[in-house]
Design brief:
14 helices, mainly alpha, Serine Threonine Protein Phosphatase 5, Tetratricopeptide repeat, 75% helix
């Protein structure tokens, strides 16, 4: 099953998966690709904005120019916050560019000094990172998410969710020569609180990325034992068992996930996968 297919499955179950970790405050993750695609380019925020503007009609271009000029002219913090929220909404809701929507929400949250909004924006970018194939985009997403997580942690240094998110940026974002920095942070939280399922899931994804499939399976099993209806963990388990050639357990967990997935397109994809394993 390729990454695009996994994306469709995750999109179909996103509302259900939200319930397992953070209610309505933090989005769920998507299955992590084992290896990022090669990319020699560097993504900057200005470059990303310019790229996404290509193909917009005159009305859309004018709207963005108006909002961007309002930010430059605005010397009152409340005005800048308002414009950043407008930019976030326009990019995400109208132009369907969620990465920039999250970025501008994060910039507004920095001015608001709002831990809740900072972590929400950071986790949206981290969600994008976990589903992104391009190495340069991974780096940009991780860099921006890291900034928001770090700002949130200056407000509440004891927020384990933000610590895990920050660790995940180092693990998966190609932003450090020492990705163990992120692994150790998350492992410390998991050791302190084995019931922190977010930490267990991230360590499981890290196991997939590093090829330590047995360790990944151990983490995902810990999650489904505590949260028997956790669709993401079940799909991750099935995928990991498939990677190690265990078709029996892969089929078992694909079937288990099917019980919780109402979306027909996602069900069809998983049923097709089950048939291929038989």
């Amino acid at each position: 099953m390729n990454k695009q297919q996994w994306f469709l499955i995750s999109a179909g179950i996103i509302l259900l998966a939200c319930l397992f970790f953070f209610g309505n405050t933090i989005p769920p993750h998507k299955p992590l690709p084992v290896a990022a695609a090669d990319s020699s380019s560097t993504v900057t925020t200005d470059g990303l904005i310019a790229k996404y503007k290509v193909g917009l009609n005159d009305q859309q271009q004018q709207k963005l120019a108006q909002l961007e000029n309002s930010v430059v002219r605005g010397d009152v913090k409340d005005q800048q916050i308002h414009v950043f929220h407008q930019l976030a909404s326009y990019w995400a809701d109208t132009l369907h560019k969620d990465y920039l929507g999250a970025y501008y929400d994060g910039k507004a949250a920095e001015l608001e000094n709002s831990e809740k909004n900072l972590t929400f924006a950071a986790h949206l970018l981290l969600e994008g990172l976990l589903g992104e194939q391009d190495a340069a985009m991974q780096h940009w997403l991780a860099t921006e998410a890291k900034e928001f997580f770090e700002k949130a942690l200056t407000i509440d240094p004891n927020n384990d969710s933000s610590k895990i998110g920050l660790g995940a940026c180092y693990m998966f974002g190609n932003i450090s020569d020492n990705p163990m920095q992120g692994i150790l942070t998350i492992r410390e939280i998991a050791d302190k609180d084995p019931n922190n399922m977010y930490a267990q899931m991230m360590l499981g994804l890290g196991g997939i990325q590093s090829g330590q499939y047995e360790k990944a399976i151990e983490r995902f099993l810990a999650v489904v034992q505590k949260q028997p209806g956790n669709i993401e963990a079940m799909l991750d388990l099935a995928q990991t068992y498939e990677r190690v050639g265990d078709k029996v357990n892969a089929t078992k967990w694909y079937n288990a996930a099917l019980k919780y997935i109402p979306a027909s397109n996602a069900r069809n994809e998983i049923e097709s996968k089950i048939k291929s394993l038989q």
